[in-house]
From TrEMBL:
It holds the Pfam family Asparaginase_2. The lineage of its organism: Eukaryota, Metazoa, Spiralia, Lophotrochozoa, Platyhelminthes. SUPFAM superfamilies: N-terminal nucleophile aminohydrolases (Ntn hydrolases) (SSF56235). Belongs to the Ntn-hydrolase family. It comes from the Eukaryota. Gene3D superfamilies: (Glycosyl)asparaginase. The active site is at residue 192. CDD domains: Glycosylasparaginase (cd04513). This is Asparaginase. Substrate binds at residues 220-223, 243-246. The record marks 191-192 as: Cleavage. One of its GO terms (molecular function) is N4-(beta-N-acetylglucosaminyl)-L-asparaginase activity. Residues 157-190 are annotated as: Disordered.
Length: 336
């Protein structure tokens, strides 16, 4: 993904102005796009929107872009969220079909309505009203992935406590008479993108976008679109974004928790570690990570359950994004 990128070893912000972009994972093209927008407009919100837009269109990012991760019915949808850490305004869309620029629709929700989130087909209808064009997010690749999943008895899946048993069938399902009745096989990890930008005035913004967990139940909404879970920003304090098992992450509002820790004086790394320590992993295990920036532009993160995790960072004077490696703890249900 980034043969020319240097490995970032410093957690501390240099003495220059705190202008930077970070994002989860080595999705460096998104980092570049965000930093270019920040340099051009000086707006942290413009930056995270531009970076997320790049990721939504980048077919190499299977866990983010269109044409990947169909749901049980074979359809690709988007979740996205933007937050302005100065005004505390938020816009989000969830389970939205047929609109490629999901993060820009989230911005329209924030700036063109009094709401925080729109969902499903009605979110797509709103997008069309705002001038966006409908186009299928499905591709030949997503259709082939879905057919292969169906031919493998719909494994893995997210069903449990249903009949017929979810571990070897595709339904249609009905409630089982007993709990924990043949849950579907567990799914693989999900690596979505969360971005933070800081502008020269200390303004902070976060942006998140994802195509959701593969083979999810139609209508599912994960942490990405949920303020405080997928991301949170507060100017003068800091911002954080998350990635991983969104169905677990959103139960703990980990991005909000990390920012709250920074408000009490914790470093970004310590704040992320403290937030993740609150998670009680389920028996099947847990994978999740946080990346954070404090008000001084210092960067840190923490990780549980992944084999590895990196934060992509770009500041003034850097010809290319730098990669901050973050050590990962085991994600099994032992105490951390």
């Amino acid at each position: 993904l980034c043969g020319s990128c240097q490995v970032f070893q410093m957690h501390q912000q240099p003495a220059s102005q705190p202008v930077l972009v970070i994002n989860t994972w080595p999705f460096v093209n998104a980092t570049r796009a965000a930093f270019a927008a920040l340099s051009r407009t000086g707006s942290a919100l413009d930056a995270v929107e531009a970076g997320c837009l790049q990721a939504e269109a980048d077919q190499s990012l299977e866990s983010v872009s269109y044409g990947h991760h169909p749901d049980e019915a074979g359809n690709v949808t988007f979740d996205a969220m933007l937050m302005n850490g100065v005004t505390m305004e938020v816009g989000a869309v969830a389970a939205m079909p047929d609109i490629l620029e999901a993060v820009s629709v989230a911005r329209a929700v924030m700036e063109r309505t009094g709401h925080t989130m729109l969902v499903g087909d009605r979110a797509a209808d709103f997008a069309v009203e705002m001038g966006f064009k409908r186009r299928s997010l499905n591709t030949d690749r997503s259709a082939a992935d879905w057919r292969q999943w169906r031919s493998g008895n719909c494994q893995p899946n997210f069903r449990r406590n249903v009949q017929p048993p979810a571990d070897h069938s595709c339904g249609p399902y009905r409630p089982a008479s007993s709990r924990d009745s043949n849950p579907g096989n567990r799914r693989l990890g999900h690596d979505t993108i969360g971005m933070v930008a800081m502008d020269a005035g200390g303004g902070l913004a976060v942006g998140t976008t994802t195509n959701g967990a593969a083979h999810r139940v139609p209508g599912r909404v994960g942490d990405t679109a949920v303020v405080g879970a997928g991301g949170y920003a507060k100017a003068g304090v800091g911002a954080a974004v998350g990635t991983g098992d969104g169905d677990i992450l959103m139960r703990y509002l980990l991005a909000f928790a990390a920012v709250s820790e920074m408000s009490l004086g914790a470093s970004p790394e310590a704040a992320c570690r403290a937030a993740l320590a609150s998670v009680r992993p389920p028996p099947s295990g847990f994978h999740g990570a946080l990346a954070a920036v404090d008000a001084d532009g210092n960067v840190g993160g923490a990780c549980i359950g992944f084999d590895s995790f990196q934060i992509s960072v770009m500041r003034p004077g850097m010809p290319e994004p730098s990669l901050l490696p973050v050590p990962c703890s085991p994600g099994r249900p032992a105490r951390l």
